[in-house]
Structures are given as structure tokens and as C-alpha cells.
Design brief:
The chain is α+β, with helices and mostly antiparallel strands. About 55% of the residues lie in helices and about 15% in strands. A hairpin with a 2-residue loop joins strand 8 and strand 9.
């Protein structure tokens, strides 16, 4: 330990002696580590933001929908199958018998206009018939007013919950609560406003209007109308088991025989999250490759500096050997010097990387991230780079003959 401390002191003294070129090497190493830690921190911030956003959209939920038809390609393809829609009776039976929070919804219109007095919204409002549990399973929150009650849904009351963008378009700064709006020639009283969710990635969360399901069936119903069942798992860890139970229950509701395939689809809310994370994985790999290439260049630069240092300090090495330093001690002296230079660069790079990554985190509105895995990885990489860079110079220094070294000018 004493020898190591002494070698670290000698390394720091050597750095002060050759300050300019050592500082340049330190900053090359710092850039490589900063690129690695910074990009990884930014990626973790983005992933955290995506998870939070999808959780607010109901990431612990899954939907049961009627199964899509298979498409036949060419004469030898599979004949298309037509699957029966999920009827209102089937959906209601599932909701009443399944022991987890469940909602039923059905699309009413995606091109509706909402009118209030002389003001009219754009004809791109999504009108959905829902029950009292829908805002829970869909991850909505209310910024004003209240939700439907079970009795209001059952009676098909002319009530509506509107999205934030709808409110801003036709009510300006006034409160819409209690006011009558027109949807498809019918009057609805606004009882609540859905909190803003954003309309990014094709989610029209703020351009929506919810009306009671029974009312939607009465005024927007059509032949073969299918209903979507949404189930809210109690915990994200229980999502898979809840899906398994739901499949079993739905097969009973649909009266399927054991040998028959499912004639309904399970749509998980976190599917898109997993797809995005899968794509982000490639960005992570690219960042890792960039950081390693930069560190490889730093290692070559550091090796060059150490070889020059060995040549310049030949007489010093000869003196130390003459005073009793073994080849092993000399070898470790130069190895530790290379590691110290790398660690100084690594520390600067880690600090810069955390700052860069968390600036990204602040911009996207995510929380502060401390990437401990990548910090420790950066420290380990610096040790490896230092050992690789210092190995040949240290070996060269250890092999010097003390008499020849003392005579070197």
C-alpha cells in the first residue's frame, strides 16, 4: 500500500512536469467517458419519461377486442376468417363476473364536431361511449367536474366529459361545467373536463369526448357493433397473471370449446413501450461503440505519451534501479501513472456526462438520473484503458539496464 501511494505521488509529479500534453490526453479520455455516460444518462431519462407517460395512459391495463381477420395472400394463402364481434351482452357478462376493475367502451365517431352556441370544434373529435370505470382503465384524470355514475350510464343520460383541447377550442377561458353542447344533433350537458394527456405519437387524448355507453349505443350504434373490454391490473407485476385469468373467463363467455382458438385479441397497453425500448436498445449499443472508439483513440494517445515519458526519464529509471528498485517496482510505477491519468480523465468525463444527460432530462421534463451502472462502468473502463496503455511503456522501462540508463543523455 505504501508503495502504491508513493507511485501515485510520483505519477502526479510527472503529470505536473508534463502538464500540457497530459492535460490534452486527460481531456481526450474525458470526452470518451462523457460521450458514454452522457448518452446513456440521456437514454435512461428518455426511458423513464416514456414509462411515466405510458403509465399515465394506463400502462397496467389491457384491452380485449374482437379478433382481426387473417388476410389471404395469393391463391395458396390462408382463407380469411371472420370473427364475431364482442357483443354488448358478452362484454357486460365479463364485466359483472370478472373480479378486477373492468370497463366497457365502444367507438362512436372519430370525425365528430362539437358545437357550443356559435362556436364549433374541428371535425376530428373522438367520441367514445364509456362506462363509469373507463377513466380509470384508460389512465384519465379529471381537471374539473366529476365522472359518470353507474346509474347515469345505465339510464343513458345526455352527459359528456370533454378533453382539454375541446374545452379550449369552444369555451375559451370560461368553465364548461353545466353547459350544453351539441354532438351529432343531440344535446349533452358537460359534467367534467379530462386532464391534458397530450396528442403526441398519434394519441388524441385531448381531442376526445366521452358519453355514457348506453347513450352511445342508442344514438351512434350500428349493426355488428363491437365493444372493447378494458381491465385494470391491481399491480404491474400481476399483469401477466390477470391476462391469463381474463383469457380463461373470456373463452367461457364466448362459449369456446377447448380445441378452438381464441376469437378475440388481447392488446397490452405496454406493447408500444416495449417496442420503443427495443429500438432505444440499438441507440444504446451505438453510444457504447462511439464511447469505446473514442477511448481506443485515447489509449493510443496515452500509450504514446508514456513511451515518450519512458525515453525522457531513462536516467531517472536508471537511478531508481541503482538505488534498489526492482523491475517489478518500475513496471508498477508506470502502470499506476497511466491509470492515474485515465482516472482523472474518467472523473471529468463522468461529471460532464451526468450534466449532459440530465440537461436532456430537464428538457423532456423527466427526473434527475444518476447512472450508477455507467459510472462504475466508466471507472472500470478507465482502469482497463490505463493498464492497456501503460503495459508496453512499463515493460520497456522495466527492461532498461541500469548502467546504460545512467549513461543515457
Amino acid at each position: 500500500m505504501k508503495l502504491m501511494i508513493e507511485n501515485i505521488k510520483i505519477a502526479l509529479q510527472s503529470i505536473r512536469t508534463n502538464l500540457l500534453r497530459t492535460v490534452l490526453t486527460i481531456f481526450i479520455i474525458a470526452i470518451g467517458i462523457a460521450a458514454l455516460v452522457g448518452i446513456q444518462t440521456a437514454i435512461e431519462s428518455i426511458k423513464s419519461s416514456i414509462s411515466e407517460n405510458f403509465t399515465s395512459m394506463g400502462a397496467n391495463t389491457f384491452n380485449i377486442r374482437n379478433k382481426s381477420s387473417n388476410v389471404r395472400i395469393g391463391k395458396s394463402g390462408v382463407k380469411p376468417k371472420r370473427y364475431a364481434s364482442i357483443s354488448y351482452a358478452e362484454a357486460m357478462r365479463f364485466k359483472n363476473e370478472f373480479p378486477v376493475i373492468t370497463s366497457i367502451s365502444s367507438w362512436a365517431s372519430s370525425t365528430a364536431s362539437i358545437t357550443y352556441k356559435s362556436k364549433k370544434s374541428d371535425p376530428n373529435i373522438n367520441v367514445t361511449g364509456t362506462d363509469e370505470n373507463y377513466i380509470l382503465t384508460a389512465g384519465y384524470k379529471l381537471s374539473e367536474g366529476r365522472n359518470f355514475t353507474a346509474s347515469e350510464v345505465k339510464e343513458g343520460k345526455h352527459l359528456a366529459l370533454i378533453g382539454e383541447e375541446v374545452k379550449n377550442n369552444i369555451f375559451d377561458n370560461s368553465s364548461p361545467l353545466g353547459k350544453l353542447i351539441s354532438i351529432g344533433g343531440n344535446k349533452y350537458r358537460v359534467i367534467g373536463v379530462l386532464a391534458a394527456k397530450g396528442s403526441s405519437m398519434s394519441f388524441g387524448g385531448d381531442k376526445s369526448c366521452l358519453i355514457p355507453l348506453t347513450n352511445a349505443r342508442q344514438y351512434f350504434g350500428y349493426a355488428g357493433q363491437s365493444f372493447t373490454i378494458s381491465v385494470l391490473s391491481e399491480k404491474s407485476e400481476m399483469l401477466n397473471s390477470t391476462i391469463g385469468q381474463a383469457i380463461a373467463k373470456m373463452r367461457v363467455v364466448r362459449k369456446l370449446k377447448p380445441i378452438e382458438e381464441d376469437n378475440f385479441d388481447i392488446i397490452r397497453s405496454d406493447n408500444l413501450t416495449q417496442i420503443m425500448f427495443e429500438n432505444i436498445k440499438y441507440v444504446t449499443i451505438a453510444a457504447l461503440v462511439i464511447g469505446i472508439i473514442t477511448l481506443f483513440g485515447s489509449a493510443i494517445g496515452l500509450m504514446n505519451i508514456m513511451l515518450v515519458s519512458v525515453t525522457e526519464r531513462t536516467k531517472e529509471i536508471g537511478t531508481r534501479k541503482a538505488l534498489g528498485a526492482t523491475s517489478k517496482i518500475i513496471r508498477w510505477q508506470f502502470l499506476i501513472e497511466a491509470i492515474v491519468i485515465c482516472q482523472l480523465g474518467g472523473i471529468i468525463g463522468i461529471v460532464l456526462g451526468i450534466l449532459i444527460g440530465n440537461i436532456t432530462s430537464i428538457v423532456i421534463g423527466s427526473s434527475f438520473i444518476t447512472p450508477w451502472v455507467w459510472i462504475l462502468s466508466g471507472v472500470a473502463l478507465c482502469i482497463v484503458v490505463g493498464l492497456i496503455s501503460g503495459f508496453f511503456p512499463a515493460a520497456k522501462a522495466a527492461k532498461l539496464d541500469p548502467i546504460e540508463a545512467l549513461r543515457y543523455e
